[in-house]
């Protein structure tokens, strides 16, 4: 089976873990602090605060901005549920809007139309590693004095207009889950240029304490372990090469695939290709065809968040609904061999002769 995704863990990561294990100091400590400083170099030297997961990063980041009951946060519905969950966990209400069909990211015009008297923030998702239109979204946010918050969970090293995602909004959050473009095992990062916001996140992740037993507020246990920090430091030395390999694999798929709609890339964007997501008029048949030939694929996401039982809303989001029926992610991971990329191309392109799966509209 050619797998869709898998973490790349080598001797350097194992050695880093062994080094931390030998110290006996496993909780958040010097490795996490070093990881935060080293990650900062990838986001225009903004302040970085490591936490236990990407969802924790979203949740604590929003809390640190003051998002709470009575507020609304505009989000896409075509994303993973954690985006909206974090808003609800703050006591605020997510307002779901439609996507730009070309990029799968939130449509700035839909965001502008959804701004109301309770709107406190806009939280675009850089879905699949493609940046949202941060130029247009910044204009919307500034016009209404809203916080602009980046969900960059899937977009390590992506750029918009020459600047890295994570350094484009008032706040940003990354995930280091094992299937992401780099991992710490589990983990997340909050990125901000506001030192007071960063301090609040540090308090929130550590039971509200900057000093032991001097709790300043009610907080959480959302710390990253030093084991995770050590793994992350090693992964940071490799993620640029991995990203270049993802982009090379994507370029080859762009050039050679037929019968599906390959993912467009906006002129201002550098795509990090967390997922390589095509559209197909018969997505499920294509997935079955690939599986029969030993090639894994994935549907991200089959049910828009607003229709999940946890939210249960009836909304008119036509591009979101269409994408949910058409998208299929193909392997693009950096450790694919050239022969494996060839096998993916041949399998997708062989669908027409095997039974007619067409491109999406």
List the helices and strands and how they pair.
Elements: H1 11-23, H2 30-40, E1 47-51, H3 54-64, E2 72-76, H4 82-89, E3 93-97, H5 108-114, E4 119-122, H6 134-143, E5 147-151, E6 159-160, E7 163-164, E8 171-175, E9 188-192, H7 195-205, H8 226-236, H9 239-256, E10 269-270, E11 276-279, H10 283-292, H11 318-326, E12 327-330, H12 338-349, H13 351-354
Parallel strand pairs: 2-3, 2-4, 4-5, 5-8
Antiparallel strand pairs: 1-9, 6-7, 6-10, 8-9, 11-12
Describe the structure.
- The chain has 361 residues and is an alpha/beta fold.
- The protein has 2 domains: 11-236, Aspartate Aminotransferase, domain 2 (3-Layer(aba) Sandwich); 240-354, Aspartate Aminotransferase, domain 1 (Alpha-Beta Complex), CATH 3.90.1150.
- It has helices at 11-23, 30-40, 54-64, 82-89, 108-114, 134-143, 195-205, 226-236, 239-256, 283-292, 318-326, 338-349, 351-354, and strands at residues 47-51, 72-76, 93-97, 119-122, 147-151, 159-160, 163-164, 171-175, 188-192, 269-270, 276-279, 327-330.
- The strands form 3 sheets. It has a 7-stranded mixed β-sheet, sandwiched between helices. Strands 7-6-10 form a 3-stranded antiparallel β-sheet, with no helix packed on it.
- Helix 1 runs antiparallel to helix 8 (226-236), helix 2 runs parallel beside helix 8 and helix 3 (54-64) runs parallel beside helix 4.
